[in-house]
Specification:
- The complex is a heterotrimer of chains A (287), B (380) and C (259).
- Chain A is built from 12 helices and 2 strands; from the N terminus they run αββααααααααααα.
- With 287 residues, chain A is an all-alpha fold.
- In chain A, strands 1-2 form a two-stranded antiparallel sheet.
- In chain A, helix 3 packs across helix 9 and helix 9 packs antiparallel against helix 12.
- The radius of gyration of chain A is 24 Å and the shape is globular.
- The relative contact order of chain A is 0.12.
- In chain B, 22% of the residues lie in helices and 36% in strands.
- Chain B has a 6-stranded mixed beta sheet, with helices on both faces.
- In chain B, a hairpin with a 2-residue loop joins strand 13 and strand 14.
- Chain B starts with a strand and ends in a 10-residue tail after the last strand.
- Chain C contains 11 helices and no strands.
- Classes of the chains: A mainly alpha (287), B alpha+beta (380), C mainly alpha (259).
- Chains in contact: A-B, A-C.
- Chains A and C meet through helix 1, helix 3, helix 4, helix 5 and helix 7 of A and helix 1, helix 3, helix 4, helix 5 and helix 6 of C.
- The complex binds adenosine-5'-diphosphate and magnesium ion (MG).
- Magnesium ion binds next to helix 1 of chain B.
C-alpha cells in the first residue's frame, strides 16, 4: 500500500481505509462539538429546549456570577489536590514496583482496581463512609460519637484519589522501568550524596512520566461528576455536576453547553501547554 | 627499589606509593563467588589492567574499588586509607562506565561540571576546569551540545572528561572502548595512553580484549572465575604464562603435555625435548609445555637444532601479513605462524599443503607450566 | 530507605484493596444494614440471580459492548492503516480529532452526543434514545483508542516486509491480509480488549445517551446506589470484581506463555 500503481488506485485505497473512520469521527465527534458550540450561544425555551436569540449571554452569565466561578475554582482545586495526593502515594509506589522481584504480580495488583468497574469503586467508599459504615463503626468502637462523613468534601477527595491512583502509577511505572540506574551510580561516583544523586540523576528522568500521569489524573478528576454526585451529594458541586444538572433537572441545555465549552477549553488549554513542553510524541504516550 | 617497567619500548618510572591495595577480597552472589580472594597492589601512576573473559568478575571487582558494592571479605585500601565501607561519593576515585552513563538531560558542559558542582566549587573555577577538560579530550566548542546527539567516540571522551576533571587519585575504566568500532578503538587506545602518561593518574583498566591490555598496560592481572590467574608486567604475562589458562587466553599457545625425565629434559608424544637452563623439574613430574605459534620454526631440510621432529602441513590460513600453518604430528595439532615476507631462508620458507616439514622448538621459547591441564580452555 | 519504601507500598496496596474487600465481605453478610458482620449467607446472590431485570441489564451491557467493539475495531484498524500509510490533506486535523474523545471529559462527550441525537431527531424523527444510540456513542470514543493502539503497533512494523510481499507479487489487498494484518494482530487484539472494557465500564456517556428500556449494569448500579445501599449490589459488585480478576489473570498467563 505504500506506492500503489496509479493515483486513482491510491485514492481508492485511502478512501477505503481512512474514509469510514474519518466519517465516523466527523459525524460523532466533530459535529456534536459544533452543535454544542452553537447550543451554547442559544437561549432556553419555556420547556428547556434550545431557541434563539443567539448571543454570548450564557458565557456572560457564567463568568459574571461568583457562584459559577467558585464552582470552576473548586473543580480545579479539588482536582489539583487530589492529583498531588495521588502523586505522593503513587510516585514511591512506582519505584517500589520497578525494583521488586515480583514486578508482574505487583503490577497486576495495581491493574485489578484499574479495571474494576468505576461505579463499584466509588460505591465502596459510600459503604465505608456512610452513617452505619465501616469508619463510623471504628469511631464508635473507641467510644466516640459517630461522625457525619457523608456527604463531605473529604469523601470526595478520598474517592477521587482512590479512583485515579492507578491511572498515575501505570505511566509513571513505565518511565521508572526505563531508567538507566547506572546514572545514579555515576552521580555517586562524582561525589553526589544519595538524596542529591536521586534528585539530579533519577528524578529528571521521571519528569515526562510525571507529566503524563498528571494529565491522565488531573483532567478526569476535574471533569468528573459521579464522585461528587454520590459522595458529596449537594454539598460539593463541581463543574461536571453543574453540566449534568443543566441537562437534567434544571433543563437549561444552552447554559449547560456553555459550561461544557468552558470545561473543554480548560482541558484543551492544559493539553496545549503539555504539548508545548513535551512535543506531540507526548500526546501519543497519553494513550 | 624503583620499579621500572616498559611499555611500548618506553621506560616508565612509577611512584613509590601504593594507590590501591586490595586484601583478600571476596564477593558472593548467592552461592557463586564472583570475586574470590583477590589481593593486589597498584602503584601510583600505574596503568594497570584487569583482563579476563566476560563474567570472570572484573566489573564486580572494579565496583568494589569504586564503592558501589562492598566486599563480603577483605579490605579495599585507597591512598593508604581503609575505604572498604566508605560510600562512593567520599572516595578519591572516579569511574568511566561501560555504557558511559552520561546524564541525558544535561549538556556536555553540565555533565562535565557535575562532579565539581557537588564539591561546591566556585562558578568561574568550574567554567575554567570544564574548558580545560574539553580541550583535554579535544572537544572544545561542544559545551552546549546534548549528549544524545553525539557519536560513540565523543560520548566516550565526554565520560572520560567528566571523570578526569575531578582530578581523582585513581581512574577506573570499565571496558571503555568495547562499544566502539575497531578503527576508533585503536585510535583511542593511543589517546588514553598519552593522557594517562601526561596526567600521571593511576588507571585501573578493565578489558576482555587481550590485545588492548598488552598494548596499554604497565602491568596486567589476568582473571578467571573470580580469581587472579597471573599478575605481572605485560611482557611477562605474554612471554612467561604461568598457567594454561593464561597461555591460551593471552595470544595463542600450543600446549603439549609432557613428563620430566631429568631436571631439564622431558618426554612428550612428539619426542624427547631439552629445556632451558632456568627450568628445573623433578623427574616423573607431569607438566605442560607452552609455545607461541610465532616461535615455532619450520624447515624443509633437517636443521641441526635441538627438539626437532617431523610434521605434516594439514592446513594453511593466509591472513595477509602472516601464513598460519596447522601442523599434524603424531596425532597432535600445532599452530605455527610465520611472517609473510619475501626472503626465503631456512626458518622462513613457504610451504604447501600436505608437505612434510621439520619442526624445531627452541628450548628458550618453551615455557613450562606446572600444575597440569586444568583450566586449559579459557572459554570453558 | 528500602524499608520505608516497602512500608509505603504496602499501605497503598491496603488502601487500594480495602474498599474491594469490604464489598466482598458484605456480600456474604446476613445483616441488611450496616457493616456489623452477623453471619455468613449466600442469600444476596440467590436474590440477585432471581432478579430477572438484572439479567436483562446484563444482556443490554453485553450487546452494547460486543457490537460497539466489533465496529470500532474494524473502523479503527482501517483508520490506523490509512493514517500510517497515506499522506493527505487534513491529515493533521484528523489526528487531532482522534485525541478529542481520549482527552475530553466524558461528561462533555456525553452531552454533545445527546445534543446531536436530539437535533437529528427533531429534524427527521429518528433515532430514539435506546441501545442503538448507546452503541453509536460507545463506538465514537472506542474508535479513537483502537486507532491509537493499532497505529503504535503499525509504526513499529518494518515497511520492507510489505515491500517484500509486493515484490513477491501480492496485490495490495493480499499484502494487507497476508502480511500486515497478521503482524499488527497483537495491536488489534489489545485495541479490541481495551475498547470492550471501556464499553463495559462506561457510565457517563451511557447515562446521557440511554433511553427507557436501555438500562445497562452501570446505570442500574448508579440508580440503586442513589436509592441507598443494598446487599444485592454488593453481590453483583463482588461477581464483577471476581470476573475482572479472573480475566486479568488469564490474560497475564496467556501473554506470559506466548512470550
Ligand atoms: N548483581 C549481581 N547479582 C548476581 N550475580 C551477579 C551480579 N553482578 C554480577 N554477577 C555475576 O558475577 C559474575 C561476574 O560478573 P562481572 O563482574 O560482571 O563479570 P565481568 O565484568 O568480568 O564480565 C558473573 O557470573 C555474573 O553473572
Ligand atoms: Mg563487565
Amino acid at each position: 500500500m505504500r506506492e500503489a500503481a496509479t493515483p486513482w488506485e491510491r485514492l481508492r485505497q485511502m478512501l477505503i481505509t481512512v474514509g469510514p473512520g474519518a466519517l465516523w469521527l466527523g459525524l460523532f465527534v466533530l459535529i456534536p462539538t459544533l452543535i454544542m458550540l452553537v447550543a451554547s450561544l442559544m437561549s432556553r425555551g419555556s420547556l428547556g429546549q434550545l431557541v434563539p436569540p443567539f448571543g454570548l449571554h450564557n458565557y456572560l452569565r457564567f463568568f459574571s456570577d461568583p457562584l459559577f466561578l467558585e464552582i470552576i475554582g473548586r473543580s480545579l482545586w479539588i482536582g489539583l489536590w487530589s492529583t498531588v495526593f495521588i502523586m505522593l502515594l503513587g510516585y514511591p509506589l512506582a519505584f517500589y514496583i520497578a525494583q521488586s522481584r515480583h514486578k508482574e504480580v505487583l503490577l497486576l495488583l495495581v491493574v485489578i482496581p484499574f479495571f474494576t468497574n468505576f461505579l463499584i469503586r466509588v460505591y465502596a467508599w459510600i459503604v465505608i463512609f456512610q452513617k452505619e459504615g465501616l469508619l463510623n463503626g471504628l469511631i464508635t468502637a473507641f467510644g466516640l460519637p459517630p461522625a457525619e462523613l457523608l456527604p463531605s468534601t473529604l469523601a470526595v477527595y478520598v474517592a477521587t484519589v482512590y479512583t485515579y491512583l492507578p491511572f498515575f502509577v501505570l505511566p509513571l511505572y513505565a518511565a521508572v522501568e526505563r531508567i538507566d540506574w547506572s546514572q545514579l551510580e555515576a552521580a555517586y561516583d562524582l561525589g553526589a550524596r544519595p538524596i542529591r544523586a536521586f534528585w539530579e540523576a533519577i528524578f529528571p528522568q521521571t519528569v515526562p512520566g510525571l507529566f503524563e500521569g498528571f494529565l491522565l489524573v488531573f483532567i478526569p478528576a476535574v471533569g468528573t461528576f459521579v464522585i461528587a454526585d454520590l459522595l458529596g451529594g449537594g454539598k460539593v458541586t463541581l463543574i461536571g455536576n453543574l453540566i449534568q444538572l443543566q441537562f437534567g433537572s434544571a433543563q437549561n441545555w444552552a447554559f449547560g453547553s456553555a459550561a461544557s465549552m468552558v470545561l473543554m477549553a480548560m482541558v484543551l488549554l492544559g493539553l496545549w501547554l503539555y504539548a508545548r513542553t513535551q512535543g506531540e510524541k507526548g500526546l501519543d504516550k497519553l494513550v | 627499589m624503583e620499579p621500572t617497567l616498559f611499555r611500548g619500548r618506553r621506560e616508565r618510572k612509577l611512584g613509590q606509593n601504593l594507590a590501591v591495595r586490595l586484601e583478600g577480597i571476596t564477593k558472593r552472589f548467592g552461592d557463586q563467588k564472583a570475586v574470590d580472594n583477590v589481593s593486589l597492589d597498584i602503584r601510583d601512576g600505574e596503568f594497570f589492567s584487569l583482563l579476563g573473559p566476560s563474567g570472570c568478575g572484573k566489573t564486580t571487582l572494579l565496583r568494589m574499588i569504586a564503592g558501589f558494592d562492598t566486599p563480603d571479605e577483605g579490605r579495599v585500601i585507597i591512598g593508604g586509607k581503609d575505604m572498604t565501607e566508605v560510600p562512593p561519593y567520599l572516595r578519591p576515585v572516579n569511574t568511566v562506565f561501560q555504557n558511559y552513563a552520561l546524564f541525558p538531560h544535561m549538556t556536555v558542559e553540565q555533565n562535565i561540571a557535575f562532579g565539581l558542582r557537588m564539591k561546591k566549587m566556585p562558578r568561574d573555577e568550574i567554567a575554567r576546569r570544564v574548558q580545560w577538560a574539553l580541550e583535554l579530550i579535544n572537544l572544545p566548542g561542544y559545551e552546549k551540545r546534548r549528549t544524545d546527539q553525539m557519536s560513540g567516540g565523543q560520548r566516550q571522551r565526554i565520560a572520560l572528561a567528566r571523570a578526569l576533571v575531578n582530578e581523582p587519585e585513581v581512574l577506573l575504566l570499565d571496558e571503555p572502548l568495547s562499544a566502539l568500532d575497531l578503527k576508533l578503538r585503536q585510535e583511542l587506545r593511543v589517546d588514553l595512553m598519552n593522557l594517562q602518561e601526561r596526567l600521571g593518574i593511576t588507571f585501573i583498566f578493565v578489558t576482555h580484549d587481550q590485545e588492548e591490555a598488552l598494548v596499554m598496560s604497565d602491568r596486567i592481572a589476568v582473571m578467571n572465575k573470580g580469581r587472579i590467574e597471573q599478575l605481572g608486567p605485560t611482557e611477562e604475562i605474554y612471554e612467561l604464562p604461568k598457567t594454561a589458562f593464561v597461555a591460551k587466553f593471552i595470544g595463542d599457545s600450543n600446549l603439549i603435555p609432557a613428563q620430566a625425565l631429568e631436571p631439564r629434559k622431558v618426554r612428550t608424544a612428539l619426542g624427547e625435548f631439552v629445556l632451558d637452563e632456568e627450568d628445573a623439574l623433578t623427574p616423573g613430574q607431569e607438566v605442560l609445555l607452552s609455545i607461541r605459534p610465532e616461535k615455532i620454526r619450520l624447515f624443509r631440510d633437517k636443521p641441526n637444532l635441538p627438539n626437532v621432529f617431523r610434521a605434516r602441513i594439514d592446513d594453511i590460513i593466509y591472513t595477509g601479513s602472516e601464513n598460519q600453518y596447522v601442523l599434524l604430528a603424531d596425532g597432535q595439532r600445532l599452530m605455527c605462524e610465520t611472517l609473510n615476507q619475501d626472503i626465503q631462508e631456512p626458518g622462513h620458507e613457504e610451504f604447501t599443503y600436505d608437505e612434510e616439514v621439520w619442526v624445531a622448538l627452541t628450548p628458550e621459547k618453551l615455557v613450562v607450566i606446572e600444575g597440569g591441564v586444568e583450566g586449559s580452555n579459557p572459554y570453558a | 530507605m528500602k524499608r520505608l519504601l516497602s512500608i509505603h507500598a504496602w499501605l497503598v496496596f491496603a488502601f487500594l484493596y480495602l474498599p474491594i474487600a469490604v464489598i466482598v465481605a458484605l456480600s456474604f453478610n446476613q445483616s441488611r444494614f450496616g457493616v456489623r458482620f452477623t453471619g455468613f449467607t449466600f442469600d444476596w446472590y440467590v436474590r440477585l440471580f432471581s432478579n430477572e431485570r438484572i439479567l436483562e441489564y446484563l444482556t443490554n451491557t453485553l450487546i452494547v459492548a460486543v457490537v460497539s467493539t466489533v465496529v470500532s475495531t474494524v473502523l479503527g484498524t482501517l483508520l490506523a492503516v490509512g493514517l500510517v500509510r497515506h499522506r493527505f490533506r487534513w491529515q493533521n486535523a484528523l489526528r487531532y480529532l482522534l485525541y478529542v474523545p481520549v482527552v475530553v471529559p466524558d461528561v462533555v462527550m456525553g452531552i454533545s452526543l445527546l445534543l446531536l441525537f436530539d437535533v437529528v431527531r427533531d429534524a427527521i424523527g429518528w433515532p430514539r434514545l435506546s441501545l442503538f444510540t448507546i452503541i453509536l456513542a460507545h463506538i465514537s470514543f472506542q474508535i479513537a483508542y483502537v486507532t491509537l493502539v493499532v497505529r503504535a503497533r503499525l509504526m513499529l512494523l518494518d515497511p520492507s516486509l510489505e515491500e517484500a510481499a509486493k515484490d513477491l507479487g501480492a496485490t495490495p489487498w493480499l499484502t494487507f491480509r497476508e502480511v500486515t494484518l497478521p503482524l499488527i494482530m497483537p495491536g488489534v487484539v489489545s485495541g479490541a480488549l481495551l475498547a470492550f472494557s471501556l464499553s463495559l465500564d462506561d457510565f457517563v456517556v451511557t447515562f446521557f445517551t440511554a433511553g427507557p428500556g436501555s438500562t445497562t449494569l452501570p446505570l442500574y448500579i448508579y440508580s440503586s446506589v442513589k436509592l441507598g445501599v443494598s446487599p444485592e449490589i454488593h453481590a453483583l459488585s463482588t461477581l464483577m470484581v471476581g470476573i475482572t480478576i479472573l480475566v486479568l489473570l488469564l490474560g497475564t498467563l496467556f501473554w506470559r506463555k506466548r512470550a
